[in-house]
Design brief:
By secondary structure, this protein is an alpha/beta fold. The chain is 42% helix and 19% strand. The radius of gyration is 27 Å and the shape is elongated. Bound molecules: 3-methyl-2-oxobutanoic acid and zinc ion (ZN). One of its GO terms (molecular function) is metal ion binding.
Amino acid sequence: MNHSQAQFNSQPESTNRIIRIFDTTLRDGEQSPGATLRPEQKIVLARQLAKLGVDIIEPGFPVSSPGEFAAVQQISRELQGVEIVGFARAIKGDIDAAVRSTMDAARRRLHLFISSSDIHLDFQLKKSREEVLEIARQMVAYGKQFVDEIEFSPMDASRTGRDFVIEMVEAVIAEGATVINLPDTLGYALPEEYGNLFRTVRAGARGADKVQFSAHCHNDLGLAVANSLAAIQAGANQVEVTINGIGERAGNCSLEELVMAIETRKSAIGAETGIVMSEIYETSRMVSRTMNFPIAYNKPIVGRNAFQHESGIHQDGLLKNRNTYEIMDPEAMGIPRSMIVLGKHSGRHAIKHRLADFGIELTDDQLLDVYNRFKEKADEMKIVPDDVLVRLASESTATQHDPYTLIDLQVLAGTQRSRIASVTIRERDSQEERTLTGTGTGPLEAVIHCLQQAIPVSAEFEDLEIHSLSTGEDAHGEANVSIVYNNQRYTGTAVHNDIILAAAQAYVGACNQMLMSIQDTDSEENTEQLA
Ligand code: KIV
Ligand code: ZN
């Protein structure tokens, strides 16, 4: 064990508690504005959640629509290795739908909720505490006739008087509830308060020692992960989370952030999960794409910048030893490693290192020349993508490194007919220029179709993201394209005030990156496979 690890690993791992991961991306996550899923999309995502190793999946709200019912039913039939939850208000019709839709699951649970805070009772339910208590009792007893595992949630528990939470929890345990979830529905609690809620209820409610406790945190104050950790430390052994922290308003506790906090600090926390780390990134990308929900660049774990370092001092440290400025290994989470982002703070060492990744060796003079021109580019672009760097190196060495160069692009847009594009591409080895045309339902699709013919690589087009970098009529846009070849992801980035051109350059950049890295590892064998 090295010095930095020793600092954190003071406890043998065998004493760690196992925390069960209850994924509600497809239920609470889907309540995120604009993130609605079709039933078949839910099924595909549920398969990925199972691959990720979550313990429990809440696939939807069965009573809400026939499509939702069918999705929960199919997921119950198909995913026999995961516990499936039927979600229901404390209403017979909801419970019946939840029970029927999960009938074929190998392991299932009924999740019932009713509000407990005075503000919800007075203004929303317009019922007294006694009435709500009675409904909770009766509905748990009703559900228990059909399902053994019953989770009960007093909604808005963190804003409910402690005595009433205890009274309600005692009542539902007496009727057969087996899991008590204490939601911080509005993301209002502070970590210490939320932890104390669990301590108080676990100590005060009769029967609490026979049930499991669960945390369910929303992120309105950015405290969902901290609050979930506080609950774990106060005895909760289940956490309810969503991928990318997606969910109502500011979202729910993010699975990847919580799991990585537990994983990275497992000795300090004394807990671990069964999540398959290598599936984290893929799951995050899939949820983002399917729900049309972009991930903030600086989002912990899965954001584009989460493992990228721009400061020259940090880059220098990283090149000497990764642990100097990284606490997690992105590759263990399936995140492509490109830890160094080249920008105006980068030094010559980092540039040399990055070019060497593409098999480009420079003399000291050439390096100085690239460096000087790189600095100008960095002022203009903020981040200098790999394909731009390689182009700078080509200019210094008078050797063209990019396998393909985009020479010209034209697009005909409109409203009625297919969009038409034409691109001219030069191939490095033959120096041949070829012009191809293509059509698409939009101008970008037409351009990508041309480029796919012009650069015949058998990579799968994975994603295109476009962001505006400024405002006004001449705003610059940034395009990021990712392609996948042999399970490996390659990305290209370009900035231009013509966003279609930026997307085309980014696509060519991604193909070049892929071709150069393949050439580097095994040139002959791979050229055959590519055409
Ligand atoms: O936020 C919440 O209170 C919920 C419950 C209904 C579990 O999503
Ligand atoms: Zn919620």
